[in-house]
Amino acid sequence: MKKALSLFLLGCLLCLSHQIALAQQEKQEAQTEEKQEIQKEISEIMPKQTRPSYKREGRKDPFRDMLAQQESRRATEGEEGPQISVENLNVIGIVKARGQFTAIITGPEDFPLFVKVGHKFSDGFILSINESQVVFRKTQERGSPLFKPKDIVKEITTEERR
Fold this sequence. Notes:
Elements: H1 2-45, H2 66-80, E1 90-97, E2 100-106, E3 112-115, E4 124-129, E5 133-141, E6 144-155, H3 158-161
Antiparallel strand pairs: 1-2, 2-3, 4-5, 5-6
């Protein structure tokens, strides 16, 4: 008798748990149906967003963000070298080590930099270094490339040669 009673109670528990699970599933289905109906109503009310179609045909694209490209270009240039203009540099000294010249220059904040041939700056690079002068090649003017690069020669004064 005890076994029959325990089996009966176990069966009742299984039936109750099954009914609870079915009720929860029906509730979730009802909620998803409501969400779908709301989305349909919203899509009927709101116009669909489409990208404007534009054929360049040799013209500039007015939808392109030009300022964002300049900022991204500046960010990548910042990783290459210091953002110092060639015109703001002063040559303090030149050292010859292992057959190569190294120039000691300062920027607007008087912080010394040791640079060699090919070192890049924001608007140019070092073309050559000899015993008394450094030749810079300026390739850009205020962020835009120059049609013809300029060579700027900066010499060490006699006071600094000592």
